[in-house]
Amino acid sequence: MSIEWIPPIMLFFVVLTMLLGVHVAWAMGGVAVVSIILAWNFNSLFIVISSVYGVMTSSFYVALPLFIAMGVILERSGIADDLYQTFYVWAGRVKGGLAVATVLICVIFAAMTGLTGAACITMGLIALPSMLKRGYNKDLAIGTVIAPATLGILIPPSVVMIMLGTIARVSVGKLFFAGLVPGLCLAALFIIYILIRGFLKPELCPSIEVEVSLKDKLIALKAVILPFLTIFGVLGAIFFGIATPTESASIGVFTILLSTVFNRTFNWKLVFESSLETFRLTVLNIWIIFGALVFASTFTALGGIELMEKLIMAFHMTPWMVMFIILVILFILGMFIDPFAIIFLVGPLTFPMMDKLGFDVIWYAIVFIMLICIGYITPPFGANLFYMKSVAPPDVSMGDIYHSSWPFVIVMLIGVVLVIIFPDIVLWLPNKMIVH
Length: 436
Description:
mainly alpha
């Protein structure tokens, strides 16, 4: 077999093994190892060692378990309940007020955790029953949870951005702030959509029946003080060049633990369980990174990138045509393949190409992540759809969850279009950063 055929065969078998249920780390790493042996010989497996060694010796990845720990502790600490109660009393008699509150809490969750599943599960347990109990339309209530929960990988600090920073070879700090404004824009689009639906059909999202005094509202605000200090402490330290992402992550873990002390939810069981879950998620993510880097190194060494460039030249495609095709592929893959698999399958192959085509890599990374966010809620296999089903009331069917996602998919696609038309939405804030 000619060596030129191996890269496309690699892509085919990686996608096939993932669809068959093989874990992304083993699918990518296994296909890469077999390809190395077929193309050269067993002695060439040093490519695997060199790819993995680069990750193991990088201090950059110290931030990964710290940001994961922030999310895990937050999920278990009960802070989310206090936040929801605060926004609940401030929602007043606004049509769709509880749904808007849910979006805002998801934004705060995103800015404190960097994870998607934690927000979806937590708000599915707290916000969804509350909205359904007060007569909210089922589709609107479900969509209000699953869509804003995806902002965890777009609004900093983001675990995904740490990984993409390595793949794209760009500053993680700049990626963090590149995602901030687009993330807030998506949250604003969600809120606008909810308020419009509430205005046109008030029965879909009724207002709160009981008036809350101003005194009670002000007392409720104490629940947001430490979470906001955490957000500003972590992001502010990075933005003003006071600390690296790794150093800021340690600040975040400390302030989250401090929040549990003030909220009287701190105990050693919380510390033990959070540490165990952090260890599990960190190891899982590191193995995914190992597999992805081995696959990317092998694919590149076998001439896969050059083959893709030749195809572009052969079809006389403009840079924007290539961009459009990649975005369509990302959207379609999001319907069937795990988002993390897409990140590590498509990311290493497209970032070098986008750079050569003249696109800003940081801008492309954010557009890429926004498409991954959409993949989290796109039927039939969007991860957040299944997270929601695992915690939803018994009368919420999988069909209900599928149906609820499509309006929010459209809203998110509008957000992607805005970022493409106005790239400064992404690039303005990173350009204002003070480099550490």
